[in-house]
Amino acid sequence: MAVARDRHGAAGRCRRARRWGGVALLAIIWCWCLLPFAWLIDVSLKTGNNALSSPLLTQGPFGLDNYASVFGQGFGYNLRNSMIVASVTTILCISIGSLAAYALARLRLRRKALILAGVLAVSLYPPVALVPPLYELWRSLGLLNTYAGLYIPYTAFTLPLVIFILTTFFASIPSEMEDAARVDGATPFQTFARVILPLSAPGVFAAAILVFVHAWNEFLLASTFAPRSLAVQTVPVAISVFTGSVPFQHPIGAITAACVIVTVPMILLVLLFQRRIVAGLTAGGVKG
Amino acid sequence: MSSVAIARSRSLDESSLGKVFIAPSVLTMALVALFPVLYAMVLSVFSYDGLRREGFAGLVNYAEALSSGEFWRPVNATLVFTAASVTLEFLIGLGFALIMARAFAGRGLTRAVILVPWVIPTVVSAQMWGLMFQVTPGFINHYAWFVPQDFNWLGTPGWAMVAIIIADVWKTAPFVALLLLAGLQTIGQDVYESARIDGASAWQRFTQITLPLLKPAILVALLFRSVDSLRVYDLPKVMTGGAFGTETLSMLVQRFVADTPDPGMGATLSILTFIAVLGIGMIFVSLLGRDLAGGGEGR
Prior knowledge:
The structure holds 2 protein chains of 2 kinds.
Chain A: H1 11-44, H2 49-52, H3 65-72, H4 75-105, H5 112-124, H6 131-141, H7 147-172, H8 176-183, H9 188-199, H10 201-217, H11 220-225, H12 235-241, H13 252-282
Chain B: H1 3-44, E1 46-49, E2 52-56, H2 60-66, H3 69-102, H4 107-113, H5 115-119, H6 122-133, H7 140-143, H8 159-184, H9 189-197, H10 202-230, H11 234-239, H12 249-255, H13 263-297
Antiparallel strand pairs in B: 1-2
């Protein structure tokens, strides 16, 4: 607060002090966000009981044994399953959702308000409410312990997010572009596929990342519909069942290593595409 | 062709295309969100012995659920969790957003850093905090001088919930900050400038300008965080397994599917959860509706 108090105060030194004050405050945020994960990495690199049961960060020996043991337990299959389920969810969700968003943003459509209210209701929906009925349904359809049993509900639950993001995005594209396409004789579908979709690539990309992250992290449905079989079990479920019944027999090293393995790609995703996510959500995009 | 005829043919074309475009989304959501609720209503009026249907039971399941402490204890735990975590997340998130809005350097990188807790899978953050709160190898007891060395956070009623709330606040306060920061950046600097010329103090500028103009963003953040907290499952499931008064509504419902299967009672509880969560969400939306619509028109 004091940092921003006096704007007219003698320039140089004051401005520099303010800048360093701002950086110091930012450091609080950095510590909040990064320290717990840094601790996790530290623990995952410790080997042997002595190191793993010590609260000291520097208690060695250190090594990559935990990572080797994680992959020895079939964690590679879990990674593959999560990758497939999250990718299929993303593709389905974006292709279905972008059509709906375009219709809501641009096309003449009856009962638009009702549809939007329905979409909002689904976004407020407690997923656990569908666990008992869907479990019964999946059991009779033979969809328990299958990829489809997971990506179908994931798609339904992330559709509202995609529809909201892309409706806003499509609505922000100036309608002159479509009018121009129409004058040139394009059908409404051509207008959507050739003009609108390329222009909204950043928004589509941002929505795709959000869907992927959601599907990658989902736990409730994954642990209920595909709890054990290594052929379909996703990463969060695998990580949760590392928990032993006796606290002191926790495979701490394996848990922490597995946690680091699944999180690092997600953090890279965020660091790489942070700018594009933000830009995608803000940029309107009229060029030429 | 007259221009009226062209317009009409295009609008027909458009509205049928609209139906085709919207159909897959509506069907998917109806299949997965609407149909199961109807199916659950059917299941809930039957009594089961294990997985075998015994007969029509009317509203017996509902009466049994509503009169048992087994239902109300998780309701209570869920409400305590939601109230505490949403309040803390909002206050800390607002603080973070104000810091970031004022920062001169490092804002872009901070925005990336702030996404890190958000992107970490909840199961991972549950395991992480679970380990940190444990005597070994956790460091919380070691460095927090006010806590006994062998204090068992996750094994003590009351404190187990505190640990879960801390884990949740860590993960989602930065996300709230991001939402509020976006709201802060829509407020023009000139408003502050003229308030400053009129002699408004920093506190006055905060309460008279920032908070009122930030209201739409605050309301949206509170809505989504509240609804999300009411559905909490991952954190207590992994950290305590629901022991020591940390079982939430979602965990209760899930228990009747997996651990002690009873489709009738499970469906009954899921309908009750559905009504409770969606009801609270809808109350929120209708209360906020006016403000949100106002905020939307401003764009």
